[in-house]
Amino acid sequence: MKTLHVGLDDRSYDIHIAPGLLSQAGALCRAALPRAGRLAVVTDSHVGPLYGETIMSSLAGAGFQAELVTIPAGESSKCLSMLGRLYDAFTAQGLTRSDGVVALGGGVVGDLAGFAAATILRGVDFVQIPTTLLAQVDSSVGGKVAIDLPAGKNLAGAFWQPRLVLMDPACLRTLDDKTFSDGMAEVIKYGCIRDRAFFDFLCAHSSRAAVMEHIESVLYTCCDIKRQVVEEDERDTGVRMILNFGHTVGHAFEKAGGYETWTHGQAVAAGMVAAERLGAALGVSDGDGFSELLEVLSAFGLPTHIDCDWSAIVEAVGLDKKGDGEAITMIFLSHMGRALPMKMKKEDVLQNLAHVCGR
C-alpha cells in the first residue's frame, strides 16, 4: 500500500492507495474515527450497486452503524435541494458530532457529501473514498467541498479536510473510456504545472492501457503534487491557485453547456489550451510543450477547443473565485512544468481572450 501524509496540524490525514482497499475500509475508518458510532455513507446510483455492499459489510465488521444514502448520479445532484436531502437523512439517522460521513463515489458525491459534513451540526468528520480517476487525483484531496448554484460552479462551499482518503485503483476498471479520459485532463494538468518529467511520461504513455500499467505511481505522483501545494497554501490564497490551470475558462464551458454538454475534464482540457494561447499572446508563456499538450489531450479523446457562447465566458470570469475586486489571478505556464500565476484586470482577460478565440 502506498501512503501519503497530508500535514496540516490538527487537520492532517493520510491518503492510502492500493488495489482491494475497499474491503479494508472498515478497519481504516475505525483507526481514523475512533469515537464514531454511526456513519452516513453517501453514494450515487451508479456507484452504489457496484461497491455499496462491500463498503457496508466492511464498516459493519469494524463496529459502525452505517446507513447508505444514494443520490442520483450526475452534476445536477450538486445542488441546494440535494444538500437538504442529505441533512434530512443525517438527522433521521441520529448523527452526532462524534459520528461521521463517508463519500463513496466520484467528484459530485465527494463535493456534496463533504459540504454536508462541513455544515451539519457545524461540522462532522468525513472520509473520502473516490471511485473515479478525476476524484482520486483531484477532488478528494485538499479539503475543497462545494455545491453549484444557478450562477456558477462550486460557488457555495467550504474548506473541510477529510480525516482519511482511500483510493482503490481497481475501481477504475469499471469506468467507461469517456469517464477515464475525463480524469486524465487533471492528470495531465499536474505535469503541466509542476513536473515536466511526469508530463513527458504521459506523452510517452498516451493510452488508457499504458497509464493503467503504472496507475498506482500515477495516482501517487498526482496526489503528492497536490499534497505539497495544499500544505503550503491550504486556503487557496497563493500557490494553490496554480491547481486551477485551465479552470477559469473551463468552468465557463461547463456552465455554457448546462453542466451536461461538456464534462469537467473536457472543459478543463480546452481551458488549458485557451490559457496557453492567452499566455503566448501576452508574452508570458514560451510555448514550450504546447504541441505536445495538444497531442496528448487528443490521444485521450479530450477536446482542444470548444465553441462557447461568449456571454458565458464573460459571466464566468466575473464570478471566478480567484477574483479580487476587478482583478483575477490567471494561471499560465512560463514553460512546460512551471505554472505562472498572474493577476490581471478582468476586462484585460476578456479582451485578450476574445482576441485569441477570434471574437
UniProtKB/TrEMBL annotation:
Entry annotated with the keyword Membrane: no
InterPro entries membership: Dehydroquinate_synthase, DHQ_synth_AroB, DHQ_synth_fam, DHQS/DOIS_N, DHQS_C
Enzyme Commission number, as recorded: 4.2.3.4
Cofactor note as given: Binds 1 divalent metal cation per subunit. Can use either Co(2+) or Zn(2+).
Superkingdom in the source lineage: Bacteria
Residue numbers binding Zn(2+): E186, H247, H264
Cofactor: Zn(2+); Co(2+); NAD(+)
Pathway(s) it belongs to: Metabolic intermediate biosynthesis; chorismate biosynthesis; chorismate from D-erythrose 4-phosphate and phosphoenolpyruvate: step 2/7
Enzyme class: lyase
Pfam families: DHQ_synthase, DHQS_C
Main location: cytoplasm
Location relative to the cell: Cytoplasm
Binding site for NAD(+): G107, V108, V109, G110, D111, T131, T132, K144, K153, C171, L172, R173, T174
Gene Ontology BP term (one): aromatic amino acid family biosynthetic process
GO molecular function: 3-dehydroquinate synthase activity; metal ion binding; nucleotide binding
Keywords assigned: Amino-acid biosynthesis, Aromatic amino acid biosynthesis, Cobalt, Cytoplasm, Lyase, Metal-binding, NAD, Nucleotide-binding, Zinc
PANTHER family linked: 3-DEHYDROQUINATE SYNTHASE, 3-DEHYDROQUINATE SYNTHASE, CHLOROPLASTIC
Protein name per UniProt: 3-dehydroquinate synthase
Biological source species: Intestinimonas butyriciproducens
